[in-house]
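Helix-turn-helix protein
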Amino acid sequence: MDGKILKKKLQSLDIQMTEVAKRLNISPQNLQNRFKSKEITLDFLIEVSKAVNASVYYFIKGTAYENEFLQPDNVILKEPDGEFIPNVVDAKNQTIEILQREVQDLRSDKDFLKKIIDSNLVKRNPDSDFEQA
């Protein structure tokens, strides 16, 4: 989507651009620069729609981009190329390894903290029948 179209749609909502920028946590200058862009990302469009409490479709409706978002039911979506599958599998395996190490570290921390707590309980209450594990 073109930034000029986005700006016109926002202006028709009668919201000050400084307020829109504030809600987006960006400077008014940054917002003006976005309006100069020939390609507004879908992510930014979603952020804007949330900031002004309007649907994404509001910004697309009546523009040349509307047809791109309205797919007929008989469209067959192409499967992603198989060349990316090994990269995804490698990334998944690396993530699993990292998570397994983190779990082990957390278990070690838990055991260490349990020993500290147990030793403090024994020091406070030496006459009790409390036994360390």
